[in-house]
Amino acid sequence: MKKWVKISFSSVLIAFLMLTLAACNTNDDTKTKKLEKVRIAEVTRSIFYAPQYVALAKGFFKAEGLDITLTTTPGGDKTMTALISGGADVALVGSETSIYVYAQGANDPVINFAQLTQTDGTFLVSREKIDNFSWDLLKGTTFLGQRKGGMPQMVGEFVLKKHGIDPHKDLTLIQNIDFANIANAFASGSGEFVQLFEPTASIIEKEGKGHIVASFGKESGHVPYTTFMAKESYMKKNKATFEKFTKAIYKAQQWVKTHSAEEIAKAVEPYFPDTDRGIMKTVVERYKNQGSFATDPILDEEEWNNLQNIMREAGELPKEVDHKTLVNTEIAEKIIKK
Hints:
Layout: H1 2-34, E1 36-42, H2 50-57, H3 60-63, E2 66-72, H4 76-84, E3 90-93, H5 96-103, E4 110-117, E5 122-126, E6 142-144, H6 151-162, E7 172-174, H7 182-187, E8 193-197, H8 200-206, E9 211-215, H9 216-220, E10 226-231, H10 232-237, H11 239-258, H12 261-268, H13 277-289, H14 301-313, H15 323-326, H16 330-337
Parallel strand pairs: 1-2, 1-3, 6-7, 6-8
Antiparallel strand pairs: 3-10, 4-10, 5-8, 5-9
Helix pairs in contact: 2-11, 2-12, 11-16, 12-13
């Protein structure tokens, strides 16, 4: 009787251990299967995209079962090439690029599905300190602008015209300097004014090489400045993936909305190891105050029309494109309702 009890106990113990191990392996397999790889190509690395880095840092993507690979592909052309060629699944870039691709007769158009920023992200920096700035002061000066055809340059020209300045007649407009070298050119003595993104503008100011005097974002109004987009065919095949992706972005947007600049700067710090925390806080605060970070992923028709108006004013709109043709708001609307 005792021998039978020992054998039974041993058998039960072994069976229990086997079941436990099997359950552990099943759970591990489930976790592995749930993580779906999604490759993002971002047009540049910028604090302007803080909600994206918050989604990564806070694990919002992973909570939705997504394993994100983030690659910086400098310039709208390179970013769109990576997307169209299959080198990326999702692109974070200006919405104007989707219009350029569509106008070229693309059979598989690029669709904007989640807006990240809703204003221009550049600032006007003056070489000299100006206590009472007015846009008229740019007349007759040399102005270092951004790349022709890109959103920063188009917004820059739109704002100048808004203040009665013809960018091609009333000042010397330089726009043939590579994006990465614009700040260096200004710091080396080129131009009296320059249009810069953050944190470069704040760094220039901290180093005493220039002074931020105006915001192009405040002047131009709401516009789909930076949006997540993907090829239409890829979105149709992966509807669930894009719902998860958009949900993670929306969580991050709400987190940024309800947290301080200091908390946001701390969260995204791993993505900017060479940037001073104080500078980061200043930059985030500046963007929050002017409403640059979209609080939800919906790219509405009014913003889309404002974008095309800015492109038209700059002479860069190849053709008028209806909002519904290149923008999908159904995913974002569904996520917000839930």
